[in-house]
Design a protein that fits this description.
Blueprint: E1 3-4, E2 7-11, H1 15-27, E3 30-31, E4 34-37, E5 48-51, H2 56-70, H3 72-82, H4 89-103, H5 114-136, E6 140-141, E7 147-151, H6 158-168, E8 174-178, E9 183-187, E10 192-196, H7 207-223, H8 231-237
Parallel strand pairs: 1-3, 2-4, 2-5, 7-8
Antiparallel strand pairs: 6-7, 8-9, 9-10
Helix pairs in contact: 1-2, 2-3, 2-4, 3-4, 3-5, 4-5, 5-6
Length: 249
Amino acid sequence: MLNRRDVIYLYDGSFMGFLSAVYDCNSEHTYPYDFEVVENGQQTLIRQYRHCIHSDKKAQLVASSVVNHAGKAAFEHLYCAFLSQLENKEMTLFEFIRLCMKHGAGIVNMLQLDCPNRVISASRAATNEAHMYRQFIRFGELENGVYYAQVEPKNDVLPLIADHFARRYASMPFIIHDSVHGQCIVYNGKELQIVDASSMPAVHFSERELACRELWKQFYDSIEIKERHNEKCRMAHMPKRFWKFLTEL
């Protein structure tokens, strides 16, 4: 039984940092008032604050507990929902973890309950968007030979697509820049990292890239049958928010 207290647990914003904070809550038998990211937290005098140190060991214990009690599917929903735009995210996921401990693997089918319903819906939203970006990302060659792509996802999809592109372009150095969440996938042909990109420098495409883009636009325009131009059909196959970074459009 956890004791309800007006304690806000501060963590570093990462998934493992959140699981570390969950571990601290359980070890201290505390049901928190909330969780907040350290840099975003606005401390008040009416709440107690607990700074949680990122610990891979603590986080792994919580992750293993979720998998052992509720299975890998529940843990995957937990992780993907953390990357989503789920409202009141941390407290919802904290409650979801508690329900995993209580109900086991059946929790992923208990969609009549508000908490698992919201978590799984958010998880699916993140994974569906990641799937679309695996198809629609367009790279361009920079002056230094690195290939660059910019994206503006609703959810934090870079962790979900990084391995896919590293496998697909195993020998090609590339950068995928998420300008919404201020981070980049950086791959040098050997090592893969997701790094902060809140102050991304201006990019400059190579002359060859610019020439190829111009030729592709001309080809795309020339093969279109004007009488059959259909914006609604195009949007059905590719949502309009993806068009911004398509070379041909």
